[in-house]
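Technical note accompanying the year-one report. For the benefit of new consortium partners, we illustrate the data format agreed upon in the data management plan: each record pairs a sequence with a structure-token string. No post-processing was applied to the example shown here.
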Amino acid sequence: MSIMNIKLVNVIVLSVVIATAANGATILDGGWYWVSGSDTSDSSVSESSGSLEINFPTRQTVYSGVVAYFPEVSLQNTGDSVTLSFSLTTPSVSFPGGGWGNTLYSGLYNSGGKQLTSDATTWGPSTGNLFKNYSGFVTQGPIGAVSDMSINFQERSSDSGYSGLLFGATTIDSVNYPSGTISTSSTYDFSLTLTRTSNGLSYTIAYAGVSFSGTDIDPVTYDFDTFLLGFNQQAFANDSVFILSDVSVSPIPEPAGAMAIFLSVALILTLAVRVKRKS
């Protein structure tokens, strides 16, 4: 093999590494913020082995959440999509009453250029009603052994009038929650894929093994830069601890990855032409 051919092989390997690294990065690496939901809440979050440990020492009737930001993903063309995925490990202590409806919230939002710069003690005035202008999509569902409950897919408009990200959303689709789908001391996978279509925005949802899909013909936004995982703290007993891990947002086409592949292919073709001319 000639020296020129060896260099060509190295370029190909490098192009694969660049494209792979650029796609589906863990967004919590870029920082996260905790909104405790109440000035009196004793909930807390800490990093542990690359994951987030979310601790609820005392059961309270408040909502709390993890908020993280990522470079804006814009679904400009038909076929463009974005996928949110993460894993969640449930507490070892029993759920009050065996289970609870409207408990877990996860979604993708457009911050409207207004993002947190520090943790917040409430959803409202102490954050300057920051979340009032957010728009996006959220999956809301139960936990434990409850019956006649639904997993809901909702959209939230920036003009909803609510300051909290978990409130003011409108349900656009729902499926039955099979009792016992989420139990204690277990790890579950969740995902949301949004794809721009010729007639709106299609969605595919996986909630701890329960999947459903559909199309929103009048979506509130095609742009996203915010991840949220929210909790109804009333649904958890004292000393409840969740572990959030493997959070990623993967756009297709992924701008950095697409550019890396394009530049790599162009360079490979250029070198191939040079090799042919010298042979």
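Partners are asked to follow this layout when depositing records. The chain has two helices and 14 strands.
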